[in-house]
Amino acid sequence: MIPKELIRLIVSEKVIPFIGAGFSRSFGYPGWMDLLEELKVEIGINDLNFEDVKDGDPLQIAQSFLSFYKEKNYDDCREKIIEGLGLNNFDVQKDKFNEPLTKIVQEEINKKLELDFSNKVLDLIKVNPDKINSSEVEKLKKLGDIDFNYLITTNYDKVIENEILDGKNHLVLSLGKGEELNWNEKDKTIFKIHGDIESNNGIIFTHSQYYQFMHEFGYFRSKLYTLFSSNVILMMGYGFNDINIHQTYFQFIRDYGSQIDNSKFYIVLTSYDKLKWGSYFNYYKRFLESYRINIIEAEDLPSFVEDLSNGISMELASTSLSSLFENYLISSEPRFADTLVKVINGDEPDYHENRRLNIDYIRSFNKIYNSPFILNEAPFNKDITYLEPTIGLSIFDYTLKIVENDYEITSHPTFIELVNHSLDYIDQTSDFYGIEYRLKRFISLSKHIEIKDADLEIGQSMYNMFSACHPTQYLRSNPGGRYLLDYLHQISRYHVKSYLHYILSEQEKDYRLPLLQKYWITKIQEKFISKKDIISLIEAIENYQEENKQTVGE
User: Fold this and answer.
1) CA-CA distance, 520 to 374, in Å (whole number)?
2) What angle in degrees, to the nearest 10, is found between the helix axes of 456-467 and 413-426?
3) Residue 553 predicted with pLDDT over 50
4) Res 220: pLDDT
5) Residues 165, 79 share a domain
6) Does residue 147 sit in the same domain as residue 263?
7) H or E element in which residue 295 lies
8) Which domain, by its residues, includes 158?
9) CB contact set of 511 (below 8 Å; sequence gap of 6+)
10) Which residues pair with 267 in a beta bridge?
11) Is the pLDDT of residue 554 over 50?
12) pTM score, two decimals?
């Protein structure tokens, strides 16, 4: 069973998945031992019965294979290196060469052999179509439905970026590519700490390469430590037998000791682990628990991911604020409840330099918008049946304060959801001046959105907004209409394009364009004259109207 606290932590964006090789098996990629067995054949080892080592230490086996490969190919590689350096008479005249040059030759030989060996390994990391489990793949892909800022993996393949997070534009940072110094911590990122199938200079595969990671890849080692320090780690498809992770984790334990929260680390163990460890399984759990690692038992990893995704969806869809209050109560963070109460009461709350806290404020505002009656409960104790204007406008105003201090938050789905609520809120009043007040909040929020797509449902809300406004026409909210005309250019292209797409979709249903909508389309054309994507949509609407002669007056 998935702990409720873990779901709350994920919703609050405090969790980083740590993904191991077990995650890629369902996609047809080889496991550690499968890879070693294929490698044995590839590099020409003929005197080893692999059954004798199938329960051995993969790192030790990989190291022995590297040693064999170096010995077998040493002479040929040495000859090519010497020739490449223009030292064709090296063996004849070696006494004339000084020791540093001899050392350089040897280093180049070792580097070339390790690189060739890495390429042999990477060439074997490919999908076996016969081993793809489609039903498991569909379940594992549900991990992409969960919003994670960072993911860590020891896998070389591209399952996470191409299958799980396809189209989500996560940055990939991997050993051997030299991109570390250009990384911005605000970017959603996949950390491939053992290298990538395209970064053979930085692959971590053998025993010696694991120790090389500790000494030469300082950035990744320190970043791993930082991620451990400031987040909750959820390990999946991973057996906690990685030397690098041990070194980082145990250093973290040593540095923080009793300060570590008992909900800091989680690991998923499945029936595969039970079979692997046999009668030692319960003692393996004792080992993990002794280092404050919480164990989640599941039948298999795909089912766990599916259950986790469903649990997150249910939590996000919940109208209750209790989980958010409990989350901050557990973390001894009093500001969350205090600020939320002040916003609802129309007081002047302070701004807090804490992105996670601010995202949770906006997440709470969305829940309140969808179900205002939850404000009748403690700590608000209201007596309402709908979202009163003073509360609605206060929610949007505090969101604007958050955005003014942290612009990056405008790309978060929770913020975009609230902006669309502010648009919908316009249609919930017929008050002559109330429309203007609501328009001001919507436009102030909308201008921060940068989305290229369009949404027909949002387009319909835009249509309703335009239907309620005109600068001069009687009974069409003159103040709101004048404000909308003055600030029309600040509405996001996402909202304008959604509106125009909605008009186009309705025209295909034998829709007749009212004069009021035609008026606003003309004004959009004037205000967005330099935006080719918007102008092309307006031209499509005009062409359709011309062809069908369906425009009528109101």
Assistant:
1) 37
2) 30
3) no
4) 74
5) no
6) yes
7) strand 293-297
8) 4-29+131-304
9) 503, 550
10) 235, 295
11) no
12) 0.71
